[in-house]
Specification:
five-stranded antiparallel sheet; Heat Shock Protein 90; alpha+beta; Helix Hairpins; five-stranded mixed sheet; 12 strands; 489 residues
């Protein structure tokens, strides 16, 4: 139940991101479409409206020029015939209104004698306009029924001034229907485009979030312990860089996990070996009370040696743990690296002589650096002791110190068994041994070179190795002359 709940919880952020992308895309597209729709429908409506105004106003003004003399001369029959004829040709209705707003002539003979309160008529009679146009969607002022109409009032002008108004009433139902049809088609087009935009947004968001989804799934698997999962580095830009960074991180974590697993396994084995040896030796002593004194002494001496070996392993592990946990500090002072190398040669010469080996030194005098004396002494000592362990009897170990510019270079060379090429990349790994049987016989813990590398790096330097199997090895340590205090970080 806990796992299911966690999975649902983890999916929410990804779904939220996707729908936010879709919503943002739709808001932008929707706003753009709304603006385009309003502008386009407004443009079409205005275009049709202006066209109708020009058409109706031109017809009314032409007829007003003809009607004005007839109305002034009171030629009723001719005026009435003219209005009826024009109304038949244009498909509309014409009315002549006197200055008091009363209808004097009507081509439909429906509003004779009535007063019209249409805004267009009032604009001309009282507002001083030469013409006024308007559209009424339902009957107004007694000039139409329920159908929408357009009315145009044009001033009738005689020699002595205004004679009244010629009112042209035309049905505009077809225009309204055409306009509604255009708006409907535009609406359908925009609805279709909006639907396509929604589908495109879903597809686009899916494509955009797919790498994130893949990365999320990989992260979940990593959280469950699968460090082998990788994500494809497709596309370009930030998502590709993110995938590359994740793969690099996963590789580092996998390497670290393997290294730690191997370290735990090796540490357990290294600690178990001396314990098992001590157990066997002590059991022999305990269960053989009549054991000769010299054999008992030999067994107890072996136990003492195994205890020393176990103590060395524990000491080295504690040192590495302090470095890993960022608790190891160096205490740099101005020190003589020349004296350190000479002292190391002096201390290890007796050890080498037991194997009939020769330890020589090519030490440049007066080489001083800023560093931690104890840690750097441990570096030189470990490398020289390691060379003695893996050099056969009669071999030669050479310790060289020279200053090169702003660096001091310590080289430990031997003509021992060498290191196979395949083992060189891992020679500084913890508990790594080229020949495990011979290494244990020599008393090594497998941690010396790892400690050397850590110490040199903390001192701001670097250590490298060159070796050829059967020809010997050369370890080179490069240290800054004016080093600064280093701390694990």
């Amino acid at each position: 139940m806990v796992i299911i709940s966690r999975t649902r919880t983890e999916r929410l952020p990804l779904d939220s991101i996707r729908w936010r992308i879709v919503l943002a895309f739709l808001l932008v597209i929707g706003f753009s479409f709304a603006v385009m729709y309003l502008l386009l429908t407004g443009y079409v409506s205005n275009y049709l409206y202006q066209q109708r105004i020009r058409q109706d106003s031109l017809s009314a003004e032409r007829l007003a020029t003809t009607v004005a003399p007839l109305f002034q001369s009171a030629a009723s029959d001719s005026l009435n015939d003219t209005l009826i004829s024009a109304g038949g040709e244009l498909g509309g209705r014409f009315l002549v209104i006197d200055p008091d707003g009363k209808v004097q002539f009507d081509s439909f003979s429906r509003a004779l004698g009535t007063r019209l309160q249409l805004p267009e008529v009032l604009d001309v009679l009282t507002g001083g306009e030469a013409g006024s146009y308007g559209i009424h969607l339902s009957g107004s002022g007694g000039v139409s029924g329920e159908e929408p109409v357009a009315v145009y009032a044009s001033r009738l002008v005689g020699p002595r001034g205004s004679l009244g108004v010629l009112l042209y009433v035309a049905q505009v139902g077809e225009m309204v229907e055409s306009l509604n049809a255009v708006i409907f088609r535009l609406t359908m087009v925009f609805a279709l485009v909006a639907l396509v935009a929604v589908i495109a947004a879903l597809v686009f968001s899916g494509v955009l979030t797919r790498p994130v989804n893949t990365l999320t799934q990989a992260t979940r698997r990593m959280g469950k312990g699968d460090l082998t999962v990788r994500v494809p580095e497709k596309g370009s830009g930030e998502l590709k860089n993110l995938a590359r960074s994740y793969n690099w991180m996963a590789e580092q974590l996998e390497t670290l996990d393997q290294s730690r697993s191997q370290f735990v396994s090796n540490a357990s084995h290294e600690l178990r070996t001396p314990l098992a040896s001590m157990k066997v030796l002590l059991e022999n002593v305990l269960y053989q009370p009549d054991m000769p004194a010299e054999i008992r002494t030999e067994f107890l001496t072996d136990v003492d040696g195994e205890i020393d070996r176990l103590a060395n392993i524990v000491s080295d592990l504690l040192l590495l743990s302090r470095m890993d946990n960022q608790k190891l500090e160096l205490h740099p002072v101005t020190m003589s690296l020349t004296a350190t190398c000479e002292e190391t040669i002096r201390l290890l010469t007796p050890v080498a002589e037991k194997k009939h080996q020769t330890v020589t030194g090519r030490i440049q005098q007066g080489v001083t650096i800023t560093g931690d004396p104890d840690r750097l002494k441990q570096v030189v000592y470990n490398l020289t002791e390691n060379a003695i362990k893996y050099t056969p009897e009669g071999g030669v170990i050479t310790v060289t110190l020279a200053r090169r510019g702003r660096t001091a270079v310590v080289t430990v060379r031997d003509n021992g068994i060498g290191i196979p090429k395949a083992d060189l990349p891992r020679i500084f790994d913890r508990f790594y041994r080229v020949d495990k049987a011979r290494s244990r016989e020599s008393g090594g813990t497998g941690l010396g070179l790892s400690i050397v590398r850590q110490m040199v790096q903390l001192s701001g330097g670097q250590v490298t190795v060159e070796s050829e199997e059967g020809q010997g090895s050369v370890f080179t340590v490069t240290l800054p002359v004016d080093g600064k205090e280093k701390r694990v970080s």
